[in-house]
Amino acid sequence: MAVAPGKYNDLCTEIRERFKADGVLVLVINGSRGTGQSMQMTPAHMLAFLSALEGIKDAMAEDLRTIIKDASAEGAALLKTLDADEGKPQ
User: Fold this and answer.
1) CB-based contacts of 24: which residues, under 8 Å, 6+ apart?
2) Residues 6+ apart with CB under 8 A from 69
3) How many whole angstroms from its chain centre is CA 72?
4) The whole model's pTM is what?
C-alpha cells in the first residue's frame, strides 16, 4: 500500500493496521531516526488527504501568526517569511 516506503514505514503500517484505517500519514521531526515521513493509502484517498493537509497548513500558519505577532524582531522576520511563502503582501 505504501507509494514509496519512508523512514517510518513500520510505524505507519502499525498505525494503519491497528486502527483499520484507509490511509495514514506519519510525519516525524527530529525523531530517533531523523526527520522523515511515511504515507500509506490508496490513490483515491490521496485527494482527501491533500484537502485535509491544506486545512492543517492554514490552521498552523494562523496559529504561528498569533504566536509571533507581538514577538521580537526574529518573530517579525518569521512572520514576513511565512507571508511570503503564502504569497501574501508584506
Assistant:
1) 12, 15, 16, 38, 39, 40, 41
2) 75, 79
3) 26
4) 0.64
Quick one: CA torsion of 10, 30, 36, 62, rounded to 10 degrees? 120
Amino acid residing at 71:
A
The one-letter amino acid at 67: I
Residue for grid cell 504561528: 64
Identify the residue with better confidence: 19 or 87: 19
Instruction: With H, G, I as helix, E, B as strand and everything else as coil, classify residue 34.
Output: strand
Grid cell, residue 81, equals 517569511
Q: What is the pLDDT of residues 11-47, one digit of tens each?
A: 999 999 999 999 999 999 999 999 999 999 888 888 8
Measured distance CA(50)–CA(90) in Å, rounded: 27
The gap from C-alpha 59 to its chain's centroid, in whole angstroms, comes to 11
